[in-house]
Design a protein that fits this description.
294 residues; twelve-stranded antiparallel beta sheet; extended; single chain; two-stranded antiparallel ribbon; 4% helix
Length: 294
Amino acid sequence: NHNQQFDPTQRLAVKYEYVSNKDAYQSDQEVSLRNRLKQNLSSSFNYSKNWKTSSISIGYNQFWDLSIENKTPKVAGNLYENRYKPYKYEDGPKFNFRIGSMKIFGLGDSWYNNVTSSYNMKASIGRKDHWLITESDTTWFSHDTTKLKYGGIKHSSRLSAPQTFFRLFTINPNISLREDWIFNYKIQESESNGDMVTVEKEGFKRRLTWDSSISAKTKVYGLLPITIGRLNAIRHVMTPSVSYNYQPDFSDPQFGGNLYFQNNNSSDRFDYFKESYVGSTPHTEKKTYTLSLN
């Protein structure tokens, strides 16, 4: 392991574990109890740098479960499709960049000086899982197979513009924007027997989704007359607030529709982004009203 802090804003952490023989820790000749009990190898690389209002980080992870290879398929259990067993993976490299909340138009007393924004970007090459393949109840094939979950890029931004009116009411409109990019996507194709199968395709897809909200609140002050000894009244403060949140249905053509979904000439649409790094596309309209009193 190596940890290096170059300065208060910059840090590097490296962890690397390796064995030349996967049976080493299970060998009867191994005298260290700690090593005999060790079943996993994990390696990682992480670098981070912070500025006053922003930061970046780069990471990579690798994991290997040694114990699975030393078990028979029958003992390993929970086989995928009764044949495959995951035992190691590589995740990344991954890159994150963040800009914290800041005033877009600088300091001042005008209404637009209250407009703030923040931005976050996450990118990943993807994750590769390695699977053992059952040869019989007691042996694995000498080679494994891999399953790649492709990465992508996720952008997110938030805009807020709180305003106070007559020194009584505070109204705060917000909008959250998400721009997602993937470079491999899924579609459904029909086989000769009429069954639909999911197929991976190479190509660029982008998606813009958003949700918005608006809230209003005020403070109500009052005195409750109570005479107890030297106590004449109790001052109390109530903060009533109301908010409204809205998220559209992105399967609707006016919000994306066929750009995000494959139309299979039926009531069902297939999401190009399903099970991808950026997640599935919201396809349900949501409206939420909230009333609270503190």
